[in-house]
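tokens incoming
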């Protein structure tokens, strides 16, 4: 293989790894009935005119298995944090006692667990589509190189390398989704 094909294969692998990292981040946001600080990741609060993640304006910690506490670094941030959580529509009503905000996670019903499993499977399918699109782009780049003089054998070898990476990444996605499904369905 040539340096150009090696670069394409390396780039394909890196992009697919990023797609899987994104999947992992999205799966962490799906709650499994246990309190986790990841539950409020991605929720932005208005902090002196700029949207800021909650973790940067407050201490987010786990009080017990079903309770998350959010203690702002500045007392005047209680109301904006509470509003942001309500606006994020995560399915939990914040309890503000004037000092800290508590999020009590209700136990999940069987129906709700199945909804979360569907959401995880949808995220997994989205990640697989991203991986396949990256494979397609890599294959197109190999075909362009072949038109520019790359031997057919080198092109076939590069394409099979890209396919092997794709198969490995899709299997990795399946493992992540199956693990989260098991976690969600465990009572």
């Amino acid at each position: 293989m040539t340096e150009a094909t090696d670069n394409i294969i390396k780039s394909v692998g890196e992009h697919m790894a990023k797609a899987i990292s994104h999947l992992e981040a999205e799966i962490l946001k799906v709650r499994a009935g246990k309190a986790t600080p990841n539950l409020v990741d991605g929720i932005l609060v208005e902090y002196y005119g700029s949207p800021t993640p909650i973790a940067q304006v407050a201490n987010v910690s786990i009080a017990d298995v079903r309770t998350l506490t959010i203690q702002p670094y500045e007392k005047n941030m209680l109301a904006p944090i509470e509003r942001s959580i309500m606006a994020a529509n995560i399915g939990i009503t914040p309890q503000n006692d004037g000092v800290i905000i508590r999020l009590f996670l209700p136990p999940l019903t069987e129906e709700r667990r199945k909804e979360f499993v569907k959401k995880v499977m949808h995220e997994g399918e989205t990640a697989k589509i991203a991986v396949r699109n990256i494979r397609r782009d890599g294959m197109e780049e190999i075909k362009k190189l072949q038109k520019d003089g790359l031997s057919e054998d080198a092109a076939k070898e590069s394409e099979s390398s890209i396919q092997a990476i794709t198969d490995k990444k899709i299997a990795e996605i399946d493992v992540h989704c199956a693990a989260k499904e098991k976690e969600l369905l465990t009572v």
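note: The first strand starts at residue 44 and ends at 47.
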